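Q&A log
Question type: sequence-to-structure
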Amino acid sequence: MIKVEIIFGNNIGKIYDVKPLLLKWPQFKVLKNQAFFNVVTVDVGGVGISWNENIDLSAFELWWNGKWFSFYAIIKEVKRWKLMM
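Response status: OK
Response body:
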């Protein structure tokens, strides 16, 4: 699985699985490349995350479709980003 770990402004953590997007949207297939996946950044104002001008996810998408996680869980190969919500 290709996942992003997000910590929202209210300190709730969510994990968003990007893998389904690889099948649904052709532009997301480049995220299979770990080096490219790792260039993800938080958008100005914390309104989402972006890899480039064509590949991004809104905070709304990450919040509603992410899965809650415990801060005490050990998670491998995941990036943490603080977003406003």
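Response note: Helices lie at 19-24, 34-37, 59-65.
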